[in-house]
Design brief:
Elements lengths: L3 H13 L11 E4 L4 H8 L6 E4 L2 H12 L9 E4 L2 H9 L5 E2 L7 H5 L6 H4 L3 E6 L6 H8 L3 E6 L1 E4 L6 H8 L5 E4 L2 H19 L3 E4 L2 H9 L5 E3 L3 H13 L1
Parallel strand pairs: 2-3, 2-5, 3-4, 5-6, 8-9, 9-10
Antiparallel strand pairs: 1-7
C-alpha cells in the first residue's frame, strides 16, 4: 500500500519468496503544485550547511529539480532517514550521507552526533519534504541553535482507485496480509474504502513498520496488527516469521 513508485521492489521480493503481491497504493505523489519556493531556494543553496531529505520521494523530486538547474554545492552536506532514502541519495552520487543506522524516524535522526547542539548551533539547515509532516526535527534543531527552513518539493494525495480492486480479492479469501507503511496511508485507506469496505478488511492481518502506524491501524479497528522493523528487509522477515 505504498505509493506505486516505491512498491515495485518489495512486490518483487514477495513474488520471489513464493507469494503474490497486489498493489493497492493508498498514497499518490507528484510534483509540488507551486514550484516557486523550490526554485527560489535552488538559487541560494550555497547559504546552507546541511540539507535533510525526509523520504525517497523528497530526494527524487528535489534533486531532479535542483540538478537540472545547477550543480550541488560542494560544501553542502546531505542527510536523511531510512535505507530507501539513503539509496536514492547515493544513486545521485552522494558518497557521504548522514543517516541513522538504527531507527528510522525523527527521534533517531536527532540522536545522531551530527545533529547535536554542538554540531548544529549557528548552522543553516534546509529540510526538503512533501506538503506537511512532523515538526519534531525542525523544532529540536531550532532549540539547539540552528536556523531551519522548509521547502515543499512534492505533494501527497489520496488516490482515486476503485475499492473493488482490493475488496473483491479479500472477499475471495485471496488476501492474507496488508502492508501499511504510513499513518497517512491508513487514514487514506479509510476514506477510500468507506465504512462497509473497511469493516470487510479488518479481519486481515496488518503489518506496520512503526509504532505510530500500529496505533493508527488499531484505531481504524484492525483486529490483528503486527509491528515490523522498518524497511523491506524487516517487512520480509516479519512475513516469513508469521506465515512460515
Amino acid at each position: 500500500m505504498r505509493p506505486r513508485e516505491q512498491a515495485a521492489s518489495l512486490s518483487a521480493r514477495i513474488r520471489a519468496a513464493g507469494g503474490h503481491a497486489l498493489q493497492f497504493p493508498v498514497i499518490a505523489v507528484g510534483p509540488a503544485l507551486d514550484p516557486a519556493p523550490l526554485e527560489e531556494v535552488t538559487a541560494r543553496l550555497d547559504a546552507f550547511d546541511l540539507a535533510f531529505f525526509v523520504s525517497p520521494n523528497a530526494a527524487n523530486y528535489a534533486l531532479q529539480f535542483i540538478l537540472a538547474r545547477r550543480p550541488w554545492p560542494a560544501g553542502l552536506k546531505v542527510a536523511t532517514v531510512g535505507k530507501g532514502s539513503e539509496r536514492v541519495l547515493r544513486a545521485y552520487g552522494f558518497a557521504e550521507v548522514i543517516a541513522p543506522q538504527q531507527g528510522f524516524d525523527s527521534e533517531a535522526v536527532i540522536a545522531l552526533p551530527e545533529f547535536s547542539a554542538a554540531a548544529v548551533a549557528g548552522r543553516k539547515v534546509l529540510i526538503l519534504r512533501g506538503d506537511g509532516g512532523r515538526e519534531l526535527l525542525a523544532e529540536t534543531l531550532r532549540e539547539r541553535g540552528a536556523s531551519v527552513e522548509y521547502v515543499t518539493c512534492y505533494r501527497r494525495s489520496c488516490p482515486s482507485l476503485d475499492p473493488r480492486l482490493l475488496l473483491e480479492p479479500v472477499a475471495r479469501g485471496e488476501i492474507d496480509a496488508l502492508l501499511l507503511t504510513s499513518s497517512e496511508g491508513v487514514r487514506n485507506l479509510e476514506r477510500m474504502l468507506g465504512t462497509d469496505g473497511l469493516a470487510a478488511l479488518r479481519p486481515v492481518t496488518v503489518f506496520a513498520t512503526h509504532p505510530r502506524i500500529v496505533a493508527q491501524a488499531r484505531a481504524a479497528g484492525f483486529h490483528v496488527v503486527v509491528e515490523t522493523p522498518a524497511g523491506d528487509e524487516g517487512l520480509m522477515q516479519a512475513l516469513v516469521n508469521h506465515f512460515g
